[in-house]
Amino acid sequence: MATTSKVLARTAAATSSTTLYTVPASTTTVVTNIAVTNSATSSATFTITLDSVDLFKDAAIAANSTALIDLKQVLATTKIIAGLASATTVKFQISGVEIA
How is the chain split into domains, by residue range? Predict the structure, then answer.
């Protein structure tokens, strides 16, 4: 089995739910950390779901700040990470390990 550490998603948030990452076929993914930044001068909120289960639901993020989240969540083949925010000034970086 090959194990590859990688950035799973690095993108600006949309204001409606958008797929950020889909686990490839014949692969298991372990999400290890998430960084959420808000570059606006006003606060915002964000939502991240793992396989349609809310990990963060309308979580607040202050103006000009970053939230760092360390976790170990396993996702099986074809499972999806999705996200959205109240403003496009919110950005996501999701890192993890793919095991194929």
Answer: 3-99
CATH 2.60.120.340 fits 3-99, yes or no: yes
For residues 66 and 74, give the distance between their C-alpha atoms in angstroms, rounded to a whole number. 24
Q: Is the entire prediction scored with pTM above 0.85?
A: yes
Query: What is the average per-residue pLDDT within 30-40?
Result: 98
Tell me the C-alpha to C-alpha distance, in Å, between residue 64 and each of 8, 35, 61, 80, 87: 23, 13, 9, 28, 13
For the CA atoms of the chain, what is the radius of gyration? 13
